[in-house]
Design a protein that fits this description.
This protein has one domain: Rossmann fold (3-Layer(aba) Sandwich), CATH 3.40.50.720. Helix content is 40%, strand content 14%.
Length: 248
């Protein structure tokens, strides 16, 4: 599916919504977090680096409602840390209206025969298992919203496997499966679940995957704001279980 071409976000389209963005300190996550705040959302900024989170918090403060920092290392976090984050959100806001799963790692682009086993486990955990754990912990808070959106950032290799994409591709297949299961389970609730494939974008991960590519030929993270606002905001109420593609 594609975001409707006639969708133009109103300045306050995210007003009174509390949204957690994982991987918010750079790339797409950083840009979307900024624009969510500019459109009225209270943004919970997730990352693992305290200095980067503080810098982003300072940058976003003043654009909209006061943001909050949610520091969590998805590679190493244990159950108590997930529970603590959930309790903090519950105590401060009482609910959650949006959860954008944007954090991820690329891993190695090598054939399965030579893929490092420890790296494979790391990529699968960060990209898939951590998303499951975080969603599992936050579902009760999402259920308290009258209109909640869970949105997974996926990839072209999450629908069709390609040589040398290894654990990253497999993790995105898993993400899309997780989203489909959740959407079906939550069909008769106020929580919707979708996936969005941003396509080739000018990010650090893309540069690592295609080091010879000219970044000037790629769209910028700023070009993706409209579909993210559509899928995280009230405009997509009732739409669930779908995979959206970027459309210029």
């Amino acid at each position: 599916m594609n975001v409707p071409r006639n969708f133009m976000p109103e300045p306050d389209c995210m007003a009174d919504r509390v949204v957690l963005v994982t991987g918010a300190t750079r790339g797409i996550g950083r840009t979307v977090a900024r624009d969510l705040a500019k459109h009225g959302a209270t943004v919970l900024l997730h990352g693992r680096n305290a200095a980067a989170l503080d810098s982003l918090h300072e940058e976003i403060s003043g654009l909209g409602p006061e943001p909050a920092v949610a520091q969590l290392d998805l590679e190493r976090a244990q159950g108590d840390e997930y529970r603590h984050l959930t309790e903090q959100i519950e105590e401060r806001y009482g609910r959650l209206d949006g959860l954008l799963h944007n954090a991820g790692v690329l891993g190695d682009r090598s054939p399965i025969e030579h893929y490092d086993i420890a790296l494979w486990q790391r990529v699968i955990h960060v990209n898939l298992n951590a998303g499951f754990i975080l969603t599992r912990c936050l579902l009760p808070l999402l259920g308290r919203s009258g209109d909640a959106s869970i949105l997974f950032t996926t990839s072209g290799v999450g629908q069709r496997g390609r040589a040398y994409w290894g654990a990253y591709s497999v993790s995105k297949f898993g993400v899309e499966g997780l989203a489909q299961v959740l959407a079906d389970e939550l069909e008769n609730t106020s929580v919707r679940v979708n996936c969005f494939n941003p396509g080739a974008t000018r990010t650090g991960m893309r540069a690592s995957a295609y080091p010879a590519e000219d970044p000037a030929t790629l769209k910028r993270p700023e070009d993706l704001v409209r579909p993210y606002l559509f899928l995280l905001g009230p405009a997509s109420r009732g739409i669930t279980g779908q995979r959206f593609e970027f459309q210029a």
